[in-house]
Amino acid sequence: MSKITWKSKRILTENGMVNGYITIEDGYIRDISDHCDGAYQDAGELGIYPGIIDIHNHGFGGWSMTDPCEDEDVRGYAKALASVGVTGILPTAKEDAFEAVARVMDQDYEGAAIYGIHSEGPFWARGGENTVGMSWPLPDVEETKRLTARAGGKMAMMAIAPELPGAYDVIRYLHAQGIKVACCHTAAHSREIYDALEHVGFDIATHLGNGMQGIHHRDVGALGALLLSEGLYYEVITDLNHICADMLKIMFRLQPYEKFCLISDSNYIAGLPAGTYMRYGRKMFADEKGLILNSDGRICGSGKWVLYNIGQLVNHVGVPLEAALRMASINPARFLGIQEKTGSIRSGKRADLMFVDEQFVCHRTYVGGKIVFDRLTDTGERIFNPEAMKRRVENA
Ligand SMILES: [Zn+2]
């Protein structure tokens, strides 16, 4: 039996911020109180918040889910993500990584809990995007069956462009399997978004505002149609590289905070030192602000993580800290249907927690009541992928 009580000035509970004590026992949150009769540890200036659940993440700390993967890559990835407060994850993987992710989900591993595989594509429409090729496979139910089988029944979510021929059949198939459907990298006009919602429905918009038509005053595009629709969740990248602060303010006026899930969309360079990295014989540039660009100057995923994005919302968009934290924890938990188990701080829930300072740096992470990251001992050399560090060819 393990039991520990922490004191903190800021514990974000389901009922708001508490200055008090939280007791973790045998993996679960046992009690939150304003007094403590027994022994306790003092978290000092660190806030204790619900751990982050990132439902769209391709890699971190040099570990990539978009390359062929071994089990150790997935375990390294889960461990590295805990260093930025992530306690739950949907690895957003390419097909070559599905099997390893599925295997590791059945193992004991130390780090963010893996809740399933997220396949972003392959049925998408990326023709409008700078320098991205025009040809992608069209939606096909048999191909979808093959992909979900390769994921070992652990596909949790697939993103698809709903306007493509055959998309409705694929969406119906995914829903029949209990797999969430995201609307992504789409060339849809507003009419096609409304039609898809009416005929088959989908569950969430992939990185709202990115990879879709924006709002014009005579045509609100996919972005406007998604924001005017009800019953959807919205992934959003709030690093302020992908979407400007004013557009985020527009989004939050049109839909309540409860509908948004903060995501990183990070790739494997995220978390590594800024500089130039070689990948598939091409250079990728990572700067201090989290921009990752290819040699054509196109944004290739994000170099930042959700905890950083929470800080951006609080410091530059005027979102209250509590709302920003919830967009990264209980909202994605609700989206995934695991809100009774995790996603917030309440007595009886699993102890998935992050200890965070006022600069939005994570110092300690608990998953299931076990410490899986401690800033004092888990230094970069211990959590980064050493192979990725070898691909760094120049400093920033
Ligand atoms: Zn992505």
Characteristic terms for this protein:
396 residues, alpha/beta, Urease, subunit C, domain 1, TIM Barrel, 2 domains, six-stranded parallel sheet, five-stranded antiparallel sheet, 28% strand, globular, binds zinc ion, GlcNAc_6-P_deAcase, hydrolase, N-acetylglucosamine-6-phosphate deacetylase activity, Metal_Hydrolase, Amidohydro-rel
Architecture overview:
- The chain has 12 helices and 24 strands.
- The chain is α/β, with parallel strands linked by helices and about 400 residues long.
- It folds into 2 domains: about 5-50 and about 345-385, Urease, subunit C, domain 1, CATH 2.30.40.10; about 50-335, TIM Barrel.
- Strands 11-12-13-14-15-16 form a 6-stranded parallel sheet, with helices on both faces.
- Helix 1 (about 70-80) packs across helix 2 and helix 5 (about 190-200) packs across helix 6 (about 220-230).
- The longest helix is centred in the first third of the chain and has 12 residues, at about 70-80.
- The chain is globular.
- The protein starts with a strand and ends with a strand.
- The mean pLDDT is about 95.
- The structure holds zinc ion.
- Zinc ion (ZN) binds near residues 58 and 120.
